[in-house]
Amino acid sequence: MWGKFSCYLTFGQLLVIACAAAPASNDHGIHSADHHKHLHHAKEEPHPSHEGAHQDCHLLSPHNADFAFSLYRKLNALTDSKGKNIFFSPVSISMALSLLALGAKEQTHSEIYRVLEYSNLQPAQVNEGYEHLLHMLNHSRDAFQLEMGTSLAIRQRFKPLDKFLQDAQHYYQSEAFTADFSKPDVAAQEINKYIAKKTHDMITDLVKDVDKDAVMMLISYLFFRGKWEEPFEERDTHKDDFHVDKNTKVRVDMMWSDRFYEYYVDRANHATVLMLPYKGNASMMILLPDEGKMQEVEGLLSKEQIKHWHDSLLRDKFPVSMPKFSISATYSLADTLKEMGMVSAFSETADLSGISEIDKLKVSKVEHKAVLKVDERGSKAAAATTVEILLETAVLPRLRIDLNRPFLLLIVEDSTKTILFMGKITDPTAA
């Protein structure tokens, strides 16, 4: 139960982070005249209105929510997940795969979009949605800090198409840097150092190894730090039991507070909903199933159900106890994404010609790690996703020439390139 409970702790946070307000119309036009001013103003300039940005951002949120719940069900069904914590950042994964889709075409592209629940969106809508999402969210304050972005680690002498690099930078704020992929251990260290810097040292070891044929690694990262709107008092924290299951309990540091909270008790669906707001525009939504009803509540997870619970919230004063904890989870997502329908990107039929028209490329690995720390003051969370891209080298058979049938020959004078003799050998035994 603890593993699943911990996953629920993040859903409210991540759905809010993914701009989960009421979605806007699907109508999508070209950039407005002040598009650049809205999205690319200087830091010292006043922050302009973002009405259009909100619309593009909200266009993605219901699709990202569908992907989040679909991926959760897949991860929850893994044998390795039984009895363990589940924690991941769906928006980090969605962003990394959307960046990959910039360079994908035909079936490879359509499969990525289908898995991400983007099938009814145009690439321009997705890409501009992330452009706006990144712009809207990358604003840190004293009480609320959110940093997210993408990067491209590129092998020396590998030259991606200029359009791919330009679009990655424009829409996904991608920084490009070279990594020494000829030395896999060195490349892993370089990429891990970069991810550690971007996640404030919360994720330091995501990349365990790098394939010797890798030419590029796509990276997405996310760092979140929020302070509770009403902190828990440390003096009220005490040791208490946490019941993992009917037969297992563990001792934890249990935080406690007695104040006004937003909540909803959904008796029909065996769940209690609790909102813990952060200072700034984020909250943690907690879903606590009734005893023995975890699977039933999991089966309800959808953007419609989350909205229903949110719209049903009441406010009252009552005590809340909550454990302090620090968890992390790491996933190799290739097999899971294949099961969800993203197949060709990992195969010899991959069409990543939007990255390189010369080299035949395919995806080899998609790795993801997420970390969450919760205490009396608030929460810190970080996530990173890497997509490793290989240069697909065909295995050529060892050269073998058997002159066991008729053949032609020429005797040539090299300096003048003069053919001195020419013939056809049909029967070597004939006189």
Automatic annotation (TrEMBL):
<keyword id="KW-0325">Glycoprotein</keyword>
<dbReference type="GO" id="GO:0005615">
    <property type="term" value="C:extracellular space"/>
</dbReference>
<comment type="similarity">
    <text>Belongs to the serpin family.</text>
</comment>
<protein>
    <submittedName>
        <fullName>Alpha-1-antitrypsin homolog</fullName>
    </submittedName>
</protein>
<keyword id="KW-0732">Signal</keyword>
<dbReference type="InterPro" id="IPR036186">
    <property type="entry name" value="Serpin_sf"/>
</dbReference>
<dbReference type="InterPro" id="IPR023796">
    <property type="entry name" value="Serpin_dom"/>
</dbReference>
<dbReference type="GO" id="GO:0004867">
    <property type="term" value="F:serine-type endopeptidase inhibitor activity"/>
</dbReference>
<feature type="domain" description="Serpin">
    <location>
        <begin position="69"/>
        <end position="428"/>
    </location>
</feature>
<dbReference type="InterPro" id="IPR023795">
    <property type="entry name" value="Serpin_CS"/>
</dbReference>
<dbReference type="InterPro" id="IPR000215">
    <property type="entry name" value="Serpin_fam"/>
</dbReference>
<dbReference type="InterPro" id="IPR042178">
    <property type="entry name" value="Serpin_sf_1"/>
</dbReference>
<feature type="compositionally biased region" description="Basic and acidic residues">
    <location>
        <begin position="42"/>
        <end position="56"/>
    </location>
</feature>
<dbReference type="Pfam" id="PF00079">
    <property type="entry name" value="Serpin"/>
</dbReference>
<dbReference type="InterPro" id="IPR042185">
    <property type="entry name" value="Serpin_sf_2"/>
</dbReference>
<feature type="signal peptide">
    <location>
        <begin position="1"/>
        <end position="21"/>
    </location>
</feature>
<feature type="region of interest" description="Disordered">
    <location>
        <begin position="30"/>
        <end position="56"/>
    </location>
</feature>
